[in-house]
Amino acid sequence: MKRLVLFAVAALMLAGCGKKQVQLLDAANFNKEVDGKQVSLYTLKNGDVTMQVTNYGGRVVALWTPDKRGSYEDITLGYDHIDKYLDNTGERYLGAVVGRCANRIAKGCFTLNDSVYQLVRNDGQNTLHGGALGTDRVVWDVVNANDSCLVMHTVLPDGQDGFPGNLDITMTYTLTRGNAFRIDYAATTDQPTLCNLSNHTFFNLKGEGNDILDHQLEINSKWMLAVDTTLIPTGFFVSVKDTPFDFTTMHPIGERIGADHVQLERGHGYDHNWIVSRQTQHEVEHVATLFEPKSRRQVEVLSDQPGLQFYSGNFFDGKAQGKWGTHVYRGAVALETQLFPDAVNQEKFTEKPILNPGETYTHTCIYQFSVAPRK
Questions:
Q1: What pLDDT score does 362 carry?
Q2: Which end of the chain has fewer CB within 10 Å, C or N?
Q3: Catalytic residue among 73, 91, 300, 336
């Protein structure tokens, strides 16, 4: 009997030491024709990272990375079936590319070359992430797909959501041997238009069903953009020093998110744009680092863009069921590299999201995954 008890205890200990492995979603769940075009699910793998992407909105559906023990977790929020994206009453932008002009445009209106354009308003009185259709509800054409790279293409037609010009976009997702997810955008137009693309992957380094308040964040920025009650920039660059917005060194996200601060009240938490402290004008540089202390998973964000939108999942309501868990309140972090929001209407913002014929918009964003060493 004693031997049986010892054997049972040993078996339980071994089971407890088991490492979680990658669990791929069924590609058949994404095999569907939408708007006359084929939607599919693609699996990329390189190094220690496995990612699944659908060409509906260029969405990152699943992203698996190891922890300090080599145990894997899907660290991004999403759904396990295309129908849940098509008929979605929860967060619209899960894992998607957003544009043609990411973030908000005040009152859905701008002037370009003396012409006034009124856009579709889909965020109260403002336009958010391109309007009613945007890039996230488009079925992208897959130009090339292999084990570690997916190239997608689309043309947003003149007049879509009120924007001028046919915007021709090629987007490349690459997993590198060094455990990085690299996104390269390139776009051209036949008329003056706006272009400011970004990626809206929602990260939780513990996996779905958990909040992110214990995640630690560092942002390479000494300044942020103050916003009004509709989250449009006021035009003022505000120092983060001695405020809850100071992430110049690592801080737990939940440490100051409930502080008595007008900007936190307006964003219902963090939903603001930080001005990256860049050393060059157009090179890829360090932007931010997200770290989860228990698993020691870490994501470093690098980009060639001047701004970073940090959103702390303030509008998740706990009603949506994801692949592996509920999308709880403040259950994920979005770190979106981009030009400043509403820059087309802001005199003080020198870098405008304006693209003219003969020019090429480019943007590189890299999410570098690792297990942080103990200090």
A1: 98
A2: C
A3: 336
